[in-house]
UniProtKB/TrEMBL annotation, chain A:
Entry protein name: Glutathione import ATP-binding protein GsiA
One GO molecular-function entry: ATP binding
Enzyme's top EC category: translocase
Record's subcellular location: Cell inner membrane
Reaction catalysed by this enzyme: glutathione(out) + ATP + H2O = glutathione(in) + ADP + phosphate + H(+)
Domain ABC transporter, residue spans: 8-262
Keywords linked to the UniProt accession: ATP-binding, Cell inner membrane, Cell membrane, Hydrolase, Membrane, Nucleotide-binding, Repeat, Translocase, Transport
Subunit structure: The complex is composed of two ATP-binding proteins (GsiA), two transmembrane proteins (GsiC and GsiD) and a solute-binding protein (GsiB).
Keyword Translocase: yes
From TrEMBL, chain B:
Classification via CDD domains: TM_PBP2
Gene3D superfamilies for the chain: MetI-like
Family classification: Belongs to the binding-protein-dependent transport system permease family.
Protein name according to UniProt: Peptide/nickel transport system permease protein
Length: 333, 313
């Protein structure tokens, strides 16, 4: 497998959600509050790879995933697909992008319309993108069910007749129906039992091999992310603080936040479980993202520069990039 | 379970309700001080007439037997004679059922026609100017008494502008529509406010569901998304609410039919109460109970059709 040509490139993506002012706020003349979900996310996804995305709850993982699948429109920033900018004015290119990049969701209950059978769900997807002439749709549905290892009689059942794991398979089939190149999996298995998680993840990896898929795998389970990803991006308050080779990042994280995040996760070694330091301080609200390095209030290495200057994401070696002013110093320390 | 056996089992469930209502009606008259026969008869009834009633009700026998006779008489269609109208209760009621059924159905249709589109407009403009305007408008409707709205409509649209008749029912279907427009509108203003609120929040919730966002990102047209994905799923809770508010709707007809002089069951009930016409009150109470039960049954069927999960149990 080669990982070289980036299939998807994201540059400086911003997305802010203005919160509605309540009448009470207006009377108190409070300013309109803004959730700064994404604050300049840049990343490259290479063809055929799995890029894991990790971070604390509320740091913008799902928002990023939805922007990539164009469920949300970013306020600013660029998305390139195969080197071509995906611009809002080119309707045909957008349509093609919408087909090539497919999203799968965390909640197996809200991701399928409860009143549509699997056949209806899949044929809607097939028809929208004219994937098959009408007379071949049923054959294609049978193929898709085989692909995700659901029995053929699943086609005429409604979502409530399936377990969570089966529903996620249906969601995978729905995504695959339009023959995408990139899958965005937002916490695809987080809602499932551990034993079922493994089945669904293994299915996904098999399909990736078989169909040459590129996968963005968003999850908060670090072990799972390590297991599936070639590379990993660590995201903190809407920016990427470290991105790089999965093994290197998990073995030797460079950014102070990555270190803290990995340390906070339950260790595999039971003896070490409670001896490691975890992150101090509260996660700041995305309503109020700190100036400079967003992590400075919680960082043990913060300096004056960290409070005023936002660190850029820069390459430290050929395997990874880090956004920290003192990355080199920390490395040699 | 097949639809038919579901229907049968739901119909059987009405029997206990029916019996309970019978018990209440039965006790109602017996709890009055004095002789139930006097309560059930005209004030000018002779002793011989009273004796006849006592025999029919089995008043000299134990309470359980009396109840048995009461149920038996009712099931055989004998609900006594109205003191006020001097006619068999059953006959009087059957004559008036179509009027109230028409009015109620009319009001339901109007409520849906008013509330449905506005709920969608409000939900799609969530927290925008239009949404706020629609919601405040209905809030006024909700907090104004039914009879007051009725009187306003009557004064302006019927009496002053003469757009509608001030009362009556008419004889043809179109006349019914015309005559009952204002009363139905009066009742509908209240129910549509409830439906609007519920449907609006249901639509907002469904619009937020992943499958709707997904459908949107696929580039499905707005009308397909709203029709196929949003409307049907948002309707489920609203149908329940509509069914449950049928009781409200019917008590609304009491006032409305009186204000608009509509010859229906509601006005009859009010007249029967003022005249202390016990046989008629009993018959009407039973009729309302049966009608409400049937509406609940119908609601359940529609719900089972809308929400496949319910078909399981
Ligand atoms: N549609 C929205 N409107 C307003 N705020 C939103 C919206 N979607 C997300 N947010 C806010 O943006 C921030 C980032 O949310 P996001 O869902 O991307 O986090 P996450 O990293 O996926 O968290 P989790 O691990 O809990 O899923 C949160 O503070 C969230 O409340
Ligand atoms: S830039 Fe400064 S505050 Fe931010 S992680 Fe690096 S050392 Fe810590
Ligand atoms: Mg999330």
């Amino acid at each position: 497998m080669t990982y070289e040509a980036p299939v998807l490139e994201v540059e400086d993506l911003h997305l802010h959600f203005p919160l509605k002012r309540t009448l009470f706020d207006a009377i108190q003349r409070k300013q309109k509050r803004i959730v700064k979900a994404l604050n300049g996310v840049s990343l490259e996804v290479k063809r055929g790879e799995t890029l894991g995305i990790v971070g604390e709850s509320g740091c913008g993982k799902s928002t990023l995933a939805r922007c990539l699948a164009r469920l949300y429109e970013a306020d600013a920033g660029k998305i390139h697909y195969d080197g071509q900018e995906v611009a809002a004015k080119d309707a045909a290119a957008l349509r093609e992008y919408n087909r090539k990049v497919q999203m799968m969701f965390q909640d197996p209950y809200s991701s399928l319309n409860p009143r549509m059978t699997v056949r209806q769900v899949l044929s809607e997807a097939l028809r929208v993108h004219n994937m098959r002439p009408p007379e071949q749709i049923n054959d294609r549905i049978a193929e898709l069910l085989d692909l995700v290892r659901l029995p053929q009689d699943a086609a005429d059942k409604l979502p409530y007749e399936f377990s969570g794991g089966q529903r996620q398979r249906i969601a995978i089939a729905r995504a695959l129906s339009v023959e995408p190149e990139v899958l965005v999996a937002d916490e695809l298995v987080s809602a499932l039992d551990v034993s079922v998680q493994a089945q669904v993840v293994n299915l996904l990896l098999e399909l990736q091999d078989k169909l040459d898929l590129t996968i963005l795998f968003v999850a908060h389970d670090l072990r799972l992310v390590r297991h599936v990803s070639h590379r990993v991006a660590v995201i903190y308050l809407g920016t990427i603080v470290e991105i790089g080779d999965s093994e290197q990042l998990f073995n030797a994280p460079k950014h102070p936040y990555s270190k803290a995040l990995l340390a906070a996760a339950p260790s595999l070694d039971p003896d070490k479980r409670h001896t490691r330091p975890s992150i101090s301080g509260e996660l700041p609200s995305p309503l109020n993202v700190p100036k400079g390095c967003a992590f400075h209030a919680r960082c043990p290495h913060a300096s004056g520069q960290c409070q005023s200057e936002t660190p850029r994401l820069r390459a430290l070696d050929e395997l990874g990039k880090v956004a920290c002013h003192h990355a080199e110093a920390l490395l040699s320390a | 379970m097949s639809s038919l056996s579901y229907l049968v089992s739901r119909l059987l469930q009405i029997i206990p309700t029916f019996l309970l209502v019978m018990v209440v009606i039965f006790l109602l008259v017996r709890m009055l001080p004095g002789d139930p026969a006097i309560a059930m008869a005209d004030a000018k009834a002779t002793e011989a007439q009273l004796e006849l009633i006592r025999q029919k009700l089995g008043l000299n026998e134990p309470l359980v037997m009396q109840f048995f006779y009461f149920v038996k008489n009712t099931l055989s269609g004998d609900m006594g004679t109205s003191i006020l109208l001097k006619a068999p209760v059953l006959e009087v009621i059957i004559e008036r059922i179509p009027v109230t059924a028409f009015l109620t159905l009319y009001a339901v249709c109007l409520s849906i026609l008013i509330a449905g589109p506005l709920a969608f407009v409000a939900a799609l403009n969530k927290n925008g100017g239009l949404d706020i305007a629609i919601r405040s408008g209905f809030q006024v409707g909700l907090s104004t008494p039914v009879f007051y709205i009725g009187l306003l409509l009557l004064t302006f649209l019927a009496a002053s502008l003469r757009l509608f008749p001030v009362g009556g029912y008419g004889t043809t279907f179109l006349q019914h529509l015309h005559h009952l427009m204002l009363p139905a509108l009066t009742v509908a203003l209240y129910t549509s406010a409830i439906i609007m609120r519920n449907l609006r929040s249901a639509v907002i919730e469904v619009l937020d569901a992943d499958y709707v966002q997904f459908a949107r990102s696929k580039g499905l047209s707005r009308s397909v998304i709203l029709g196929r994905h949003v409307l049907r799923n948002a309707m489920i809770s609203t149908v329940t609410l509509l069914g449950l508010s049928i009781g409200n709707l019917m008590s609304g007809t009491l006032v409305t039919e009186t204000v608009f002089a509509v010859p229906g069951l509601g006005r009859l009930m009010l007249e029967a109460i003022f005249a202390r016409d016990y046989p008629l009150i009993q018959g009407l109470t039973l009729t309302f109970a049966v009608m409400v039960s049937l509406v609940f049954l119908f609601t359940d069927m529609v719900q089972a059709w809308l929400d496949p999960r319910l078909r399981l149990s």
